[in-house]
């Protein structure tokens, strides 16, 4: 529920650029040789979200590159699907790595809900945590980055990825029942890809 402390009180795109650049720079620290040969997949809020702090996606990518001091990779791209963007980005990243188009892929996400139009929008939709709405969320801002490469020894590995779309989202206009059909389809897709079933999972985290 508070802004991230930064060296200066930047606003708008410039603020998001510095937030993302900080996360990307930290991700490069343990693999400095990846600089200059990494495709960036930048995850951003939906284009039509009220109060979206990004006006020009391409300009934001250039600003981030200037701060991090890296040239943009020809296979870099934007994924502007809001919260699911990271999962979509993983799908793009594995294809880039498998095809050899990039030896490294940086998946970075940045967003800020601390704009007046955004807060007004989610208050109107009863999505924010308030005294009379205990099921809402607390608006904030953040950036994160994950550096991906082909699997080797050690480290985190991604074995299966399932993507789906939930028809009965919180904003659906048809009053469809909330049965998590989209989540179920995504689980099924991931299991098919890995060749295992739910009984072989030792630990799982899920959210609706």
What does this structure look like?
This protein folds into 2 domains: 12-153, Peroxisomal Thiolase, Chain A, domain 1 (3-Layer(aba) Sandwich), CATH 3.40.47; 159-208, no CATH class. It has 5 helices and 4 strands; from the N terminus they run H-E-H-E-H-E-H-E-H. It has 208 residues and is an alpha/beta fold. The chain has a 4-stranded mixed beta sheet, sandwiched between helices.
Shape: globular
Name of the CATH architecture of the largest domain: 3-Layer(aba) Sandwich
Helix content: 25-40%
What structural class is derived from the secondary structure elements?
alpha/beta
Find the CATH superfamily of the largest domain. Answer: Thiolase/Chalcone synthase
- Give the CA-CA distance, first to last residue: 21 Å
Number of domains: 2
CATH class of the largest domain: Alpha Beta
Poorly predicted residue ranges: none
Taking Cα atoms only, what radius of gyration do you get, to the nearest Å? 19 Å
Largest sheet data: 4 strands, mixed
Mean pLDDT rating = 93
- Give the topology string: H per helix, E per strand: HEHEHEHEH
Number of separate helices: 5
Number of strands: 4
CATH topology of the largest domain: Peroxisomal Thiolase, Chain A, domain 1
């Amino acid at each position: 529920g508070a802004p991230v402390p930064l060296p200066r009180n930047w606003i708008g795109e410039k603020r998001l650029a510095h937030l993302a650049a900080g996360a990307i720079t930290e991700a490069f620290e343990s693999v400095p040789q990846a600089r200059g040969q990494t495709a960036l997949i930048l995850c951003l809020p939906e284009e039509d979200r009220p109060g979206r702090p990004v006006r020009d996606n391409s300009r934001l990518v250039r600003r981030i590159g200037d701060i991090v001091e890296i040239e943009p990779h020809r296979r870099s791209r934007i994924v502007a699907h809001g919260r699911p963007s990271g999962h979509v980005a993983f799908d793009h990243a594995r294809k880039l790595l498998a095809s050899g188009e990039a030896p490294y892929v940086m998946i970075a996400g940045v967003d800020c809900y601390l704009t007046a139009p955004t807060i007004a929008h989610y208050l109107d939709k009863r999505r924010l945590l308030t005294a009379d709405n205990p099921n809402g969320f607390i608006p904030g801002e953040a950036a994160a980055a994950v550096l991906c490469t082909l699997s080797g020894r050690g480290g985190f590995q991604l074995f299966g990825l399932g993507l789906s779309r939930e028809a009965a989202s919180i904003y659906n206009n048809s009053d469809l029942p909330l049965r998590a059909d989209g989540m179920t389809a995504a689980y099924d897709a991931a299991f098919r890809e890995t060749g295992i079933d739910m009984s072989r999972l030792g630990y799982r985290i899920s959210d609706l």
